[in-house]
Amino acid sequence: MQNRYSKEIIPIKGWEREETFRFFSTFTQPFFNVHTEADITPLYQYCKQHGLSISLAYMHATVQAARQVENFLLRIENGQVVRYSGLDLSTTILKDNKQIAFTHFPYHEKLADFCAEGARIIAAVKQSTKLFNGHQGIDLLHMTTLPWFTFRGMEHAFSIGQEDPGVPKIGYGKLEMRGDQVYLPISIGLHHALADGYHMHLFMEELTRVVQRYTL
Q1: pLDDT tens figures, 189-208
Q2: Which of 14, 116, 197, 202 has its CA 20 to 30 A from that of 129?
Q3: Kind and range of the H or E element at 101?
Q4: Closest CA to 166 of 37, 99, 75, 85
């Protein structure tokens, strides 16, 4: 499948992660998951003031943060490690018939532009009969939202016995209001051959940085 972003091959021999990569590449289930939360109060307040969708806003913040962490740009293709120059997002959308649709959202630098196109995409997909809508390459983040309840853990479906390209998997739960603060439950799944817990830490730092830009 043709991807939207350019890529470069990272030679495994001599790579700083060579030994780690070769070790975890032998695992039938190489993903590890961490469940935490993000304080998104500034972003939430900004969306309320400007009439923007909070769910689209934290999707946008997620992609912006992931683009700043190199390990979130790494993938495995035909046994090689490649680094993509950018990322878009594919997330689940609940259609009018209460079935899900995996849906591509192109990246936009500006939040307002992302929300405007995102609203158009959601409206169209809700009427769709397709499971997959738009680009579904590996130069994406895979995301889902469970807006009906908070959670303290989440695991994703996977296939055993075939090479997994290592697309990061992010899940969000229902917003939690604690006084004046707004928290978003978040589950992050990464391929251990490509990333460690430290890289999740870097992602969470970037996510906090992005959210803080919207401080009123």
Answers
A1: 999 999 999 999 999 999 99
A2: 116
A3: strand 100-105
A4: 75
Q: Which residue has the tokens 């500034």?
A: 42
Q: Are 5 and 139 in contact (CB under 8 A)?
A: yes
> Which of 5, 63, 71 has its CA nearest to residue 32?
71
Q: Could you give all domains of the chain from N- to C-terminal order, each with its CATH number?
A: 7-212 (3.30.559.10)
Whole-angstrom distance, CA of residue 216 vs CA of residue 212? 9
Q: pLDDT by residue (tens digit) across 121-143? A: 999 999 999 999 999 999 999 99
Helix or strand holding residue 94 (H, E): strand 88-94
Q: What counts of helices (H) and strands (E) characterise the chain? A: 5, 11
**For residues 41-53, average pLDDT:** 97
Residue with tokens 């740009």: 73
Residue 125 burial (C-beta neighbours within 10 Å; 0-12, 13-18, 19+): buried
pTM of the model: 0.94
Q: What angle do CA 205, 116, 202 make, to 5 degrees?
A: 10
